[in-house]
Amino acid sequence: MRFFILATVVLSGPVACERACTTDARPGLSVSVVDSVTGALVCAATVTATDGSYSETLNGLLPPPEDGGPPCAYVGAFERAGTYAIDASAEGRETRATGIEVTKDSCHVIPRKVTLNL
Q: For residue 52, how many other CB atoms are within 10 A of its CB?
């Protein structure tokens, strides 16, 4: 009898554990822009993410800093997996990062944090 029970458990294969997905939308990208000379965050940049024909200007992370100034992180690509080129521009300078891959699990995107030096 023990053999029959053990054989049944072994032959039935792995048991999948299901988890409940949440309803929140998660950003695929969180981008910080840093001045390459001073190391300070650049808080007034325009940051754009492009994946093929899809393009999005990333939003400043809310809420803004305590001093009421502009936010210093930019988020976007909510629940959108893909391979992105990210462009940032501010104060007459530009920078680009390419090949930034955002993946997805069974529920949400896996957020990628990116720092661009301007």
A: 9
Contact 93, 87 (CB under 8 A): no
pTM of the shown model: 0.77
Q: CA-CA distance, 4 to 21, in Å (whole number)? A: 37
For the chain, the straight-line distance linking the first and the last C-alpha, in angstroms and rounded, comes to 70
Report the alpha-carbon angle 46-50-56, nearest 5: 55
Residues 6 or more apart from 79 whose CB is under 8 A from it?
A: 25, 26, 28, 104, 108, 109
Q: Mean pLDDT across the stretch 60-72?
A: 66
